[in-house]
Design goal:
The protein is an all-alpha fold. The chain is built from four helices and no strands. The longest helix has about 40 residues.
Amino acid sequence: MSGSDFQATATQLLHRQSSSQQHLRQYTFAATIADRFFSDNSLDRQKRVVECARRRQTRARDKALQQKMSLLKQNEFEYLKKSAKPREWDANCSTLLQRTSSTFGGDTVSSGKKRRIDNLELSAS
């Protein structure tokens, strides 16, 4: 092995060692930034957590209201079906559907979804 071969091998070894240390430094720097981001509430992390919780509560409230309305609607239909004569029942059902659609602006499920999307768009802007 000549002197130039030894020097080339030593240079390659040094380069590999330096490269691996640099990669380790980059990883450490990224980990430090990530730790800082989550530990000191930088970039308004707490504000975003509160907004997320509010949106979650609003969605849960909307879902509970929809379930309650559908249950009431179902109970009213069953009551009308049992108590009324067949012709009267058809008339009462159409009246109930008209009243429900005018109260909630159409189908309660789809209008609830539209409302939820509007709320998300408003909160995002």
